[in-house]
Amino acid sequence: MNSNNPFFKNKTFTNTSASAEVHEATVIDRNETMTVSGTINKSFLMLILLIASAAITWTMTFNGQPPMIFIFGGAIVGFILVLIATFRPQSSGYLAPGYAIFEGLFIGGLSAIFETMYPGIVIQAVSCTFVTFMVCFGLYKYEIVKVTERFKSVVLAATLAIATYYLISWLLSMFTSFQPVHYGNSMFSIGISVFVIVIAALNLFLDFDQIEKGVQQKMPKYMEWYGAMGLMITLVWLYIEFLRLLSKLNRK
User: Fold this and answer.
1) C-alpha 14: how far from its chain's center?
2) Which of 121, 135, 185, 240 could form a disulfide with 251 if both were Cys (CB 3.0 to 4.6 A apart)?
């Protein structure tokens, strides 16, 4: 079972599933295994933690205090927690809430900066992210869009291409005078943003499928936190891409 979400793209789910099958005879209570409702509840809890944390750097920025240390610190620590969870999913119960808190510091500061430059952009980005999530969830729930192996392969290839492009562009801009095309507000740059948003949205389908299969394979209870963390990673990525796109449109 594979997902193109970088957080899910490892052997954790496969290995955990195999382990769950070996110990299935010892599982007496259904509450000891992963459930859809449990994953949803933990996703909502992470969202609340992220919003509460984001309010800190948001408030600091509008009070005239520099939020950059929280932005960079939150992004770095959040990334480290994701890496740890990838190799130690059994610790997701602690790592997932921590990720939500530190990622909230990053998102709050970033959102405040964008809001200062383009008033009203944050509520627009939040609305777009929420609507996209609900549409994708509805399409998946009613099986209008089915996650096939070909679907996974295409989205995986596109996601890896985007990640590679972003990494190379960032490195070149750091050490040279290179200006990545997606930094501007040209029609080509806007087109790139739209494409990235589409790919990020398609990641949601694979996340839903990953969680559903985890429940079917009776994975351990702590995998609810792991699944919620993967879903939150995709939502944060989607929100940031909407911020970028709307900022480009506002500069037109």
Assistant:
1) 21
2) 185
